[in-house]
Amino acid sequence: MSLIDALRRWARQLKRDVLALWFARRHPLTPWHAKALGAFVVAYALSPIDLIPDFIPVLGFVDDVILLPGLIWLTLRLLPPQVLADSREQAQAWMDARRERPRSRMGAVVIVLLWVAVAAAMAVWAWPWVRNRFG
Question: Which of 7, 19, 57, 60 is deepest in the core (most CB within 10 A)?
Fold first, then answer.
């Protein structure tokens, strides 16, 4: 198996696991902490907006290559084995039916609000300097 084939297989599994987390959030046996982390991971993974935009050199791909797969892995480890098996089966059926990937508008809203909060915090932090320098 070539490296390209291995990467494609890994990407398909990652996509299936994000969908599995999407289904696991509604499973009655999913613990609350796995639901909470899973909701964040799914919202972020399905959000059309990245936490770190891809046009920022190197850092823009860190969330796609390291952060997101790590969070998916952690959340999958928090799921009971039966929930994980059921959710992966549902996700595979979804993918086999070639349905469109679900989108998370809430994830986009959370990312935008996070950026607004960071900008506001930076403005509050910088305000005394700006006032003393120009005021």
Answer: 19
